[in-house]
């Protein structure tokens, strides 16, 4: 009787061992393996996307704040043309690394940040031309266009931005600042005519043409210097721009 009772007590344990060792719950079964791995596959599909979006947002915000900080420091502690060379580079770097949408967002975020720190007027002056110039340079550098085209387009944007600033500040101050520029160019033209021995009064149309030419030349020189800074800086950051012309490589031994 005792032997029969011990056998009855052992039967459930034997049945459980048989069930646990059966093939339908075996870890080697393909169906079981696929079903057990489904949550991890889903998590692996979602996590890289979320991580990429986070990296894009962080880089965009960081470079937008860097552009705003450079503008702010140059406004209160001007160091000549040194910091001015870096105005469009953070936005262009966002374009090179994350595309056009991130570059536009970086320029707008920098403008909003400057509007909080310095007021809307200074933020608009930053966006036009340096924010748009950064987007244009980033587009040209991503497509590896030659320096002549990118410098020319950037100079046009810079010239338009200068006239925009003249128009905006003339409205705010109630004075025509273009008249002040024309007066300075007239004095320079009179001095040139005197040195060249030309006994004539410079025409007003000639003075305006000279003013436009000087503004364009100034922007060409500025964009060329920006390209040189970007060539050295962005190569070190792993986002190289188009190679300079041969005479620039020879001159810089680059």
TrEMBL record:
Keywords: Membrane, Transmembrane, Transmembrane helix. The keyword Transmembrane applies. InterPro entries: DUF2232. The chain crosses the membrane at residues 54-73, 103-127, 147-168, 204-234. The keyword Cytoplasm does not apply. This is DUF2232 domain-containing protein. The lineage of its organism: Bacteria, Bacillati, Cyanobacteriota, Cyanophyceae, Pleurocapsales.
């Amino acid at each position: 009787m005792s032997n029969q009772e011990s056998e009855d007590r052992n039967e459930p344990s034997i049945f459980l061992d048989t069930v646990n060792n059966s093939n339908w719950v075996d870890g080697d079964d393909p169906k079981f393996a696929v079903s057990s791995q489904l949550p991890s596959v889903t998590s692996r599909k979602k996590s890289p996307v979320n991580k990429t979006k986070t990296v894009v947002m962080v880089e965009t915000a960081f470079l937008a704040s860097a552009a705003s900080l450079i503008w702010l420091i140059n406004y209160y502690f001007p160091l000549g043309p040194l910091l001015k060379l870096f105005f469009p580079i953070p936005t262009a770097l966002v374009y090179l690394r994350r595309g056009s949408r991130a570059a536009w967002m970086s320029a707008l975020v920098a403008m909003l940040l400057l509007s909080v720190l310095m007021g809307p007027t200074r933020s608009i002056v930053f966006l036009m031309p340096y924010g748009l110039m950064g987007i244009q340079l980033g587009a040209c550098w991503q497509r590896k266009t030659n320096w002549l085209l990118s410098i020319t387009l950037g100079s046009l944007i810079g010239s338009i931005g200068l006239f925009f600033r003249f128009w905006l500040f003339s409205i705010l101050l109630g004075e025509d600042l273009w008249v002040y520029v024309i007066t300075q160019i007239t004095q320079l033209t009179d001095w040139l005519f005197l040195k060249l021995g030309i006994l004539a009064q410079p025409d007003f149309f000639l003075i305006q043409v000279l003013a436009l030419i000087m503004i364009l030349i100034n922007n060409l020189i500025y964009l060329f210097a920006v390209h040189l800074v970007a060539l050295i800086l962005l190569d070190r950051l792993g986002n190289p721009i188009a190679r300079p012309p041969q005479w620039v490589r020879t001159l810089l031994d680059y």
